[in-house]
């Protein structure tokens, strides 16, 4: 019998709703007492290929807040996400009110995406506990919390590190973290850094933090967060939470999989840069030159950048030849395939794929580990530079193309260009480093053990459910599995 309701509020965007849905499904499968409502704040960024209407599941419902086009037009791109969340507070307040009035079950709490932490204000109005769902890794969480504490307790200004060669000691990292791999938002003096660190302050006010990672992947970072030294709410490493369902796209998936079926095992390098990943024509040319010189079999997801100044998803090219070197498609037709959108998890799961040139988004990182495919790191934005540093330096699960690459952040604020030589070198190391490949295969097995019964993440899910089901909020000590 359902007795407790959790309300999930994910951030808009491809990297947030799918893992939220997957976490909800896991919780519902584990405990029949739970029901879950997911409030979906719609956003209009042009065409994308995520599942718009997830499959109906018992005790799980979705409440959509339609996209308000007129409001979207008024939001400043620099403060877009915080303004978007603030705009939706009244809508969420009304929905929570209706849930409380219409439900016979207890509101066990709100599970807020890391960027939706300001919704804590709404939860407090209803005296409802809040939990944070942190969709990046444990090491990243530690960095955010550490820099927030240094700001508030030591008046440390992280924005002063922009452009410096400094390194930071962060307790969730074994190695010192170079300033060059910090998030752009952390170095933003115009409000971005304050906004991002204020989120961490709100995390500390929550009843607990679920992190999409597993103890065996980030053992150093997780151990610190689970220790009393962290001085934070209980942490639940519940990952990898992955959306492994193969998406379809007008028959193109079948075409891609048919091509992969004709390639030999571990022979193909897959280039894909996430839902927001795209490059200017000059960079596309350098990638093409690198692939041709390497002689490597390849599957390349090539996307058209959005118009400058617009927040939109990239789109497929109608004719990729317009940005590729003349004759490239003909010369590489026997070894490579250029596509648009890619069914990423299906491709990574295919036995012919032996390497992944990736932007190192956290979902993609977890997918590459789950599938046992090593990475060549080429981060673009958000926390991807830090993820790339972690994969290359901390964990030895990736080769480097350029871990401090920043889109639109060259010396004169123009697009940085990674040379064909750098790309070719990264691809060659990716496909030839046997020790790295062995490490990735070992981590693949550990990822699957973690979520199986008796595994570290399976146990963390159980602890979270016990915490959320408690009639009165409990003070749980962080414990290792």
Automatic annotation (TrEMBL):
CDD domains for the chain: GT1_Gtf-like
Keywords carried by this UniProt record: Glycosyltransferase, Transferase
Function, in words: May glycosylate diterpenes or flavonols in leaves.
InterPro entries: UDP-glycosyltransf_plant, UDP_glucos_trans, UDP_glycos_trans_CS
Protein's UniProt name: Glycosyltransferase
Record's signal peptide: none
GO molecular function: UDP-glucosyltransferase activity
Record EC number: 2.4.1.-
Family, per entry: Belongs to the UDP-glycosyltransferase family.
Name of the top EC class for this enzyme: transferase
Species for this entry: Lactuca virosa
Source organism, top-level taxon: Eukaryota
């Amino acid at each position: 019998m359902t007795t407790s309701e959790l309300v999930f509020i994910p951030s808009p965007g491809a990297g947030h709703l799918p893992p939220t849905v997957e976490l909800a499904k896991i919780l519902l499968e584990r405990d029949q007492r739970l029901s879950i409502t997911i409030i979906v704040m719609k956003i209009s960024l042009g065409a994308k290929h995520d599942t718009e209407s997830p499959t109906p599941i018992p005790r799980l419902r979705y409440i959509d807040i339609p996209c308000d086009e007129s409001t979207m037009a008024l939001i400043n791109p620099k403060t877009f996400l915080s303004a978007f969340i603030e705009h939706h507070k009244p809508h969420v307040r009304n929905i929570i009110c209706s849930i409380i009035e219409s439900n016979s079950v207890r509101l066990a709490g709100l599970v807020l995406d890391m960027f939706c932490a300001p919704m804590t204000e709404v939860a407090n109005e209803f005296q409802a506990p809040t939990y944070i769902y942190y969709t990046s890794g444990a090491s990243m969480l530690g960095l955010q919390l550490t820099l927030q504490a240094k700001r508030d307790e030591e008046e440390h200004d992280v924005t002063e590190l922009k452009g410096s060669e400094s390194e930071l000691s962060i307790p969730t990292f074994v190695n010192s973290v170079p300033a060059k791999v910090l998030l752009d938002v952390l170095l933003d003096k115009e409000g971005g850094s304050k906004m991002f660190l204020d989120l961490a302050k709100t995390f500390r006010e929550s009843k607990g933090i679920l992190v999409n990672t597993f103890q065996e992947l980030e053992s150093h970072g997780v151990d610190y967060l689970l220790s009393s030294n962290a001085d934070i709410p209980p942490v639940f490493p519940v990952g990898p939470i992955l959306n492994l369902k193969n998406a379809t796209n007008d028959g193109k998936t079948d075409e891609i999989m048919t091509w992969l079926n004709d390639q030999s095992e571990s022979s193909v390098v897959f280039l894909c840069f996430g839902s927001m990943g795209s490059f200017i024509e000059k960079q596309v040319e350098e990638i093409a030159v690198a692939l041709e010189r390497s002689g490597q079999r390849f599957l390349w997801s090539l996307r058209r950048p959005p118009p400058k100044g617009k927040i939109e998803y990239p789109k497929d090219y109608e004719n990729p030849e317009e940005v590729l070197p003349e004759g490239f498609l003909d010369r590489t037709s026997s070894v490579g395939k250029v596509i648009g959108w890619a069914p990423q998890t299906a491709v990574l799961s295919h036995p012919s794929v032996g390497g992944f040139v990736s932007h190192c988004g956290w979902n993609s990182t977890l997918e590459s580990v789950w599938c046992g495919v090593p990475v060549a790191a080429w981060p673009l934005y958000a926390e991807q530079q830090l993820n790339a540093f972690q994969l290359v330096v901390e964990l030895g699960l990736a080769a480097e193309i350029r871990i401090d690459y920043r889109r639109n952040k060259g010396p004169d604020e123009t697009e940085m260009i990674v040379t064909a030589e750098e790309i070719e070198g990264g691809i060659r190391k990716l496909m030839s480093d046997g020790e790295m490949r062995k490490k990735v295969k070992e981590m693949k097995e550990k990822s699957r053990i973690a979520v199986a019964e008796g595994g570290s993440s399976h146990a963390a899910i159980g602890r979270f459910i016990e915490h959320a089901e408690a009639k009165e909020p409990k003070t749980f000590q962080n414990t290792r599995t």
